[in-house]
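Our consortium's second objective concerns turning raw sequence data into structural hypotheses that experimental partners can test. To show how far this objective has progressed, the report includes one record in full. It was chosen at random from the queue rather than selected for favorable results. The single chain below, 490 residues long, was entered without modification.
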Amino acid sequence: MRLLSRSITVRSCGRFFSRAALLIALSIPVLSIATASFDAGARAGQLWTDGPSGSDRARQAQSLPDFVGLAAALSPAVVNVSSEQAEGASIEGGGEGEPFEHYGPHSKGLGSGFFINKEGYILTNEHVVENATKIVVTTSQGNEFKAKLIGSDSKTDIALLKLDARRDWPVAPLADSNEVKVGEWVMAIGSPFGFDHSVTAGIVSAKGRFIAGNYDDYIQTDASINPGNSGGPLIDLRGEVVGVNSAIFTRTGASMGIGFAIPINLVKDEVDMLKSSGRVSRGWLGILVQKVTPDIAEAMGLGEPHGALVADVLKGGPARAAGLQRGDVIVAYNNQPVGDSQELPLLVGHTPVGRTANLRVIRNKVPKDLIVTITASHEEELASAQEEEGSEPTEKSPLGLSVKDVTPQIAHELGLSDSSGVVVSSVKPGSPGDEAGIRAHDLILEVNREPVKNVASYGQALKAGGKGKMVLLLVKREDSTLFMPVKPQG
């Protein structure tokens, strides 16, 4: 597993936990909402092996777990995955407790995986085999085989491997992870710190855990997961895989009882595409969204905070063609409620490219339905620049912000099509703007949903809002656009 520092401040790179903590693993997010193109109904010729269906889940959950039987039945299907990378390759990891070994001009990373069918296809984490020049799989009997990377997806941290050697490979059947209940017993098998085929047990601690910016809603478990468990299976009492172990929350580099597994249903949706094309085909909405906080809900008159607030609608995207506007709050997607902004990518992810979807939005407190067509993804390069230094502020506000007009030079540096808005030149420490997170070099585009053209209109908009009332600012910061509520003093 890769070792990445994570700050409690939520930023575009998905920082989520405390400054002292380390989060082991996952991929770096993109700014626009991406969607996976897959048809959940297409099961003909599926690549994996389903577990036996039945109604015995509740009965088995109430019985005492037989981990001896589970370990004996599933361990043969679990493998050790070793990836070798040439000198100069980008290798993230090697942190405290990370099982990376160095052999001359090569680096070796260790992880886990498991067979999903008898043809020799293996699931593991993408970060286990990232940039690999050689992948070696070791079975529970100690036999080593060279594996071929069939495909991988960094956004869900999944990779599909294949062994060409012909054997009657043992298989770990895949469960329906939607049926998993909080409190169920689960077991993890992997190679923590290089100790292959170690077995640990625990319960499902929670479901639907979001790590900011990632394309997953994780299963949380207290089954001990450590570096080297990456890519191994999380198994229920029926002997079926409910998730792929991928990350842990830790302050030491070792397990602290908070582990995360990628739900296997999400993985199933990707496996066929990885086999056929080596990658996951995704669509694109072309929007930037953010969480609707209680303060934002108050400022926008929404009542209870819910939905996904559209912070920007990118040019040339399907959302703009559908009429979606900055400031809209998406509260339902294809009649499925959107309780939190992090739910939207997964809801959209079940819409094949080319299909249409219905968006229910709240615009200026009025519900509105829009039809959007999911299109092929585009990689947008958004310009980022710094505001010119040394200029004096021209306006001071009750928010504790000093702002100035956008000059043609600043507009050019920020990649703006015009010079509308005001630039924050300084923020008074301890002021409402400082407490709300406003920074120097931020560009303020709106005040209380009213466009700001210059310092004069900025001041007028603040006065029109009323003394002491919540102020909703639309702020452009580098390559992001955010609504930020500010509560004036007094």
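The partners drew two points from this record. The longest strand covers residues 198-209. Residues 45 and 272 are 9 Å apart (CA to CA). Both points have been shared with the crystallography group to help prioritize constructs.
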